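[job 4471] stage=fold_predict status=RUNNING
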Amino acid sequence: MKAEVREIKAEGWVCGKCQEPLRQLPVEITYMGSSFQVELPRCPVCGFTFIPPDLAYGKMREVEKLLEDK
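[job 4471] inference complete, writing structure tokens
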């Protein structure tokens, strides 16, 4: 079963620490030696990255399972 992930935009989100608006910025995600470049809402000041629950528990969980099965 494939998890559906809706695209999360940075618009309207603000960093709780810096009070700066989040922007869609490239983020490198690393898991078990594999790296992936994705764009996620991120604070341009402190680097806080917002990973929405549907992405963390959906698509990222799928990738995690694929990598662990190898």
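[job 4471] summary: The radius of gyration is 13 Å.
[job 4471] exit 0
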